[in-house]
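SEQUENCE-TO-STRUCTURE ENTRY
===========================
What this section holds: a protein sequence and its matching fold, both as plain text.
Tokens: labelled as protein backbone structure tokens, with as many entries as the chain has residues.
Question of interest: how does this chain fold, as expressed in backbone structure tokens?
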Amino acid sequence: MSRDQGDESAVEAARRELLALISAGELEPGRRLGSERELSARLGVSRSTLRQALGALEGLGAVRRVPGRGGGTFVSKSKIERDLSSVIGVPALLREQGFTAGSRVVSAGIVAADDATAASLAVDPGDLVTEIVRIRLADGQPLSLENARFPALRFPSLLELPLGGSIYDLLAERYGVRPVEAIESIEAVPAGPDEAAVLDVPLGIPLLAITRTTFDGSGSPFEFSHDLFRADRTRILVRTQGAAGTADSARGRGRLIDLHHMPR
């Protein structure tokens, strides 16, 4: 017999119990949950309460629902680890962790550099930059919204190349430019209507906003980007140096560094 009366406390209790099973590894990532009848019997709650608990877990990103025949509710895969100690493109990052990488190009074109872009890329305000906006996918699901800008004169005909994969690979193969160092700043921001729609998350849910300036081997900046990562699918990893190493890095750059990393 069901122990609940369909109230909020019963929904919260069921949600917590399901989360505990996931955290303990009893419900493994990628595994399909049992039927509503089986789960409701196991938890001792009504199917209505179970549906509400699963809906709350879906909003948190702990489970995902797949419609249609053969679908169901699945435990979400583990979070994607974003290691700020190395300069690596998203496709390579995902492949290293067993995810299938994908991209959707939202827009691509030539625009005039605003003040922030000009300062980061060491060009004059109004100079032309190539802007590429993409949705990055992990296992077919939205992971981040990426807005990257590059000096147009340095990378002519970039827009004529395939932009669905790694931009870093394209720059290395076509222009001989490779990322060696990057400065990144991170803050949590709420998802607005556009971001929520694009990333398939509830309105107002926290996103990780990462602003990055990337440098080549000669110390010249060649990329300025602003990325919005789903916080429910991303974990940030930072490897820190000792006090002497951090001080030397900051002094060498001569600027405030929020997060300063170099390749491993």
